[in-house]
Amino acid sequence: MTCAACSLTPTTSPAASFNKSIIQKWSLNNGAVLFYKKPASSILTRPCAASSSSSSSATTKKKRKKKKKKDEEEEEEEEEKDESRSGDDESSSSMMKRLDDVNPVGLGRKSRQIFDEVWRKFSGLGQISRTIRSDEDDEAVGGPMCEFAIPGAQNTTVLVVGATSRVGRVVVRKLMLRGYNVKALVRKASQQVVDMLPTSVEIVIGDVGDSLTLKAAVENCSKIIYCATARSSITGDLNRVDNQGVYNLTKAFQDYNNKLAQLRAGKSSKSKLLLAKFKSEDSLSGWTVSKGTYFQDVVATKYDGGMDAKFEFTENEEATFSGYVFTRGGYVQLSKRLSLPLGSTLDRYEGLVLSVGGNGRSYVIILESGPSADTTQSKMYFTRISTKAGFCRVRVPFSAFRPVMPEDPPLDPFLVHTFTIRFEPRRQRVTDGTTGGNQDLRSFQLILEYIKALPTGQETDFILVSCTGSGIEANRREQVIKAKKAGEDSLRRSGLGYTIIRPGPLMEEPGGQRALVFDQGNRISQGISCADVADICVKALHDSTARNKSFDVCYEYVAEQGKELYELVAHLPDKANNYLTPALSVLEKNT
Amino acid sequence: MALRIPIHHMTMKKLNSHSNGHTPLSWRCNLATDALLSPQSSIFLPSCSPSGQVKPLLVTCASGAAPSAANLAPGTPVRPTSILVVGATGTLGRQVVRRALDEGYDVRCLVRPRPIPADFLRDWGAIVVNGDLSKPETIPATLVGVHTIIDCATGRPEEPIKTVDWEGKVALIQCAKAMGIQKYVFFSIHNCDKHPEVPLMEIKYCTEKFLQDSGINHTIIRLCGFMQGLIGQYAVPILEEKSVWGTDAPTRIAYMDTQDIARLTLIALRNEKVNGKLLTFAGPRAWTTQEVIALCERLGGQDANVTTVPVSVLKLTRQLTRLFEWTSDVADRLAFSEVLSSDTVFSVPMTETYSLLGVDSKDIASLEKYLQDYFTNILKKLKNIKAQSKQSDFYI
Questions:
Q1: How, if at all, do strands A506-507 and B243-247 pair?
Q2: Fewer CB within 10 Å of terminal CB in chain B, N or C?
Q3: Which strand (E) or helix (H) includes residue A488?
Q4: Which residues contact residue A288 at a Cβ distance below 8 angstroms, ignoring those fewer than 6 apart?
């Protein structure tokens, strides 16, 4: 460039000053980077033109020819602007002569680069603001300016089951846009399926009906979104995907979490806290059996039938709490003061899980809380649990406990000091079961295996897209709902933080257009777009209010006059607004 | 599908050569299919050349809808969620793609085949199809099964403006018409009808006219300026302490965030009321170059090294470059200087548009907010990098 300018203009003085001014200006701007170009520019104006034009390659010549003209105009304005800067320190610069600097080829190239830059900026002024951007530049692709960016998304791997379903496809896209790592569980990696999914999605081949294949799928995942559904209404198919599939996957995911917890020697945030384990004779110590009645003032009723209970370790190595209550209003209970391991408090846990067996009675669990030194100030909180005939695990969240005295504040798990399980003959239901027709509802048997506290989590682990049942043909509905319900139940029992979304009939249309209704209790009647369901899934991932909730969702509908019974929360999903939190915070947990 | 694209009807005539200093453009286009015998309407647009001459600009287009094209055959109905984005790798295009994907559309992107494919589009879940507007034979295959076309394409500065922006667009619109595309959204430039001396604006204006005459269901959206463009032009140089070039032009531009444009576009897309309309999107406030630089300086906490180029110099350069044919695209690139010198305000009141689309004006990002976010993020990042480099010094 330098050379081109020099050779073209007859008088050297403007050209020289032009060269100088540009280069010096740039050395000013770029400080250290271009510093030692200065001496070269001041010494060499003419020689450079001759030698570099001869030595430089043919390609540069071509380009240069095109630029000749531009240079001419460039001179004019450069002169007027930059004259002021031309007086610069030349004494210090001459010290820094290097062999490299006087190399005419390198010099020509450098000055060409500088000129190109100046020209680019200059011509940029003459344009409507357009960004000239190279394709590798991904500033806008996932940069901080992106409204979709979610902090921590890069460290979160989400497994999407049913990634090719109507909802699943949009879920995958939304996750990708937000920068999550996405794994997709597919049955076959056929070309069609692969084409449907974004290229960076990790495809795992497996089947939710086959628990062995799920092990690999849940590896490294921290969240699961389950939007698969059976393709047919054949009962076997429904069971396999909607019921057994959910069960298998929760199991695989729990196994994986447990594995992680074991690796961290029980110190993981996923580890449960063992409160009591009944595996030996000794473990029964500390538990006391007591009895009482609700009508203490009526002496007569107290002795009319009698009651008895015992807690013993049987020969089959089972800790059994059994007995009978014939007294009207009587109860028997088993209680213990909890001794927590050092450094752990129950407020970091969100509920209890009991592994019990027996003949399927329902029990009342009572937690006493208050300062442990002074039991007179204890407050009692109760909840009712039902068991099944045979062994089962019962999950009781702390939020389910109600104070015995209605004026007491809600349960604070931090203060809990005594655990009681009480049997009372009231409100027992006949269970269809092994005990036969002559079962007496006043006798009971409860085999205790362990009591653990469930770790609390801020976020949901498993999002299940279920259905409300509306919009399915009547002859299929029963079966579908049965399978879906069974799936939901196994998820609730799994101990994972769950969110169950029951959308109305799905519609294939863009989302974010209409207000949504979040509700519980199977009352909704409208449809909803797949994209909105997907949006709820993605939003629920990091929303603490979505944890352990089941809810129905559909488009807003106008209730008929006089039938506005419900308190419904509606909000139009819009840019960056989080409609989910306010909508869900009023809904019940653990329903 | 039997397709007859009347590309061969389209002729481009240059009435004048470049040597007389300006290049009046004239295109004769014909959108008549052979089956169609409807009367044709011709529109003569006065094209003002800078020297004051008036040349007729002829755009001829078959008026009236072509009933044969819209309902071709009873086949699978096209899903309204399937859209094609042309120019998907661009500043605006990528935001449109992202927004559309997020709203649950099935997005197809028309991109030019290139050695390094635009992987980010595929990563987001869009389907990428290869095609080139300058090669009309590649277009029809990409339009199969598409309901709506969103056209955000503009030729790159370095390529001749006519191939993509005019010939390519004409071919695309003709093809869309022939294949019964149900909606065509076209992005144009604000005030493009007032500045026919700027080639890009003239082309955009002619394309608008062509689209309106084609009878296709369309929406034209005129834009003022992108905030994203300011980052590279002012914010980055200021942070890197390089020189910033600005003009002293009094022109004001109401810059707008492309994410907002994309959002409004998709709202407009679903709104039946805007069919066939011309909307103009503008940002909340119009800014001069000097104001933008001052804002960047304030937010960046650094004084900029500003080089102010008088508009007269730009104009002079343009005049000089137009003298020779081989500098004509340089002249085209500087053409906007004509607009800059004309003291225009690139802005429109948006209240009506907001109410038409049902958008709250509070949701539209202002330039102050946008740049503030940018600088906060970048400065935080720089801090992190500095902290890291200090740590690594320890090991060296």
A1: unpaired
A2: C
A3: helix A474-493
A4: A334, A335, A336
B52-65 pLDDT, tens digit each: 333 434 444 443 33
8 Å CB contact of B98 and A177: yes
Residue position matching structure tokens 């609390």: A456
User: CB B125 to CB A127 under 8 A?
Assistant: no
Q: What angle do CA B95, B96, B99 make, to 5 degrees?
A: 85
Distance CA B124, CA A138 (A): 13
Q: Pairing relation of β-strands A569-571 and A516-519?
A: antiparallel
The reported pLDDT for the residue numbered B224 is 85
Alpha-carbon span A548 to A459, nearest angstrom:
9
**Which residue bears the tokens 């031309």?**
A86
Interface contact flag, B123 A127, Cβ < 8 Å: no
Q: Where do the DSSP E strands lie in A187-269?
A: 202-205, 223-226
Which has the minimum average pLDDT: A432-436, B82-86, B139-143?
A432-436
Q: What SS3 state is found at B300?
A: helix
B122 by DSSP, 3-state: which? helix
Q: How do residues A223-263 score in pLDDT, each as one tens digit?
A: 999 988 777 767 777 777 888 888 889 888 888 887 887 77
CB A334 within 8 A of CB A421: yes
Helix residue ranges per DSSP H, A150-210: 166-177, 191-196
Nearest alpha-carbon partner for A201 in A261, A161, A237: A161
Residue A262 host element (H or E) = helix A246-263
CB atoms A131 and B321 under 8 Å: no
Tokens representing residue B349 in the block: 């009141």
Rounded to 10°, the helix A211-218/A246-263 angle is 50
Yes or no, beta carbons of A200 and B98 under 8 Å apart: no
Please count the other Cβ atoms lying within 10 Å of the Cβ belonging to residue B394.
6
Q: Chain B partners of A69 at a C-beta cutoff of 8 Å?
A: 320-321, 324, 326-327, 330
* Dihedral (CA of A264, A265, A267, A272) sign: positive
For residue A529, the chain B residues in CB contact (below 8 A) are 104
Q: Which two tokens stand for residue A320?
A: 């059994």
Is the CB of residue B384 less than 8 Å away from at least one CB of chain A?
no
Q: Quick one: which of B15, B334, B18, B339 has its CA closest to B193? A: B339
**Looking at residue B13, what is its pLDDT?**
38
Distance CA B33, CA B9 (A): 10
Tell me what ipTM this predicted complex has: 0.70
Residue found under tokens 């603001």? A129
Pairing of strands A516-519, B243-247: unpaired
Angle at B101 between CA B98 and CA B104, to 5 degrees: 150
* Pairing status of strand A549-555 against strand A569-571: unpaired
DSSP state of A563: -
Mean pLDDT of chain A: 70
pLDDT tens, position by position, B123-156: 888 888 888 888 888 888 889 889 999 998 887 7
Name which of B231, B336, B374 is nearest A127 (Cβ-Cβ): B336
Closest approach of B333 to chain A, Cα-based (Å): 6
B379 at A interface, C-beta within 8 A: no
**B222 close to B281: Cβ distance less than 8 angstroms:** yes
Token code pair at residue A124: 């940029």
**Mutation to test the A interface, candidates B317, B318, B372, most A Cβ within 10 Å:** B317
Q: Are the beta carbons of A331 and A287 closer than 8 angstroms? A: no
Return the number of other C-beta atoms located less than 10 Å from residue B349's C-beta. 9
Q: How far apart are CA B218 and CA B241, in angstroms?
A: 45
pLDDT band at residue A24 using 50, 70 and 90 as cut-offs: very low
* Chain-centroid distance, C-alpha B395: 50
Q: What is the pLDDT of residue A224?
A: 92
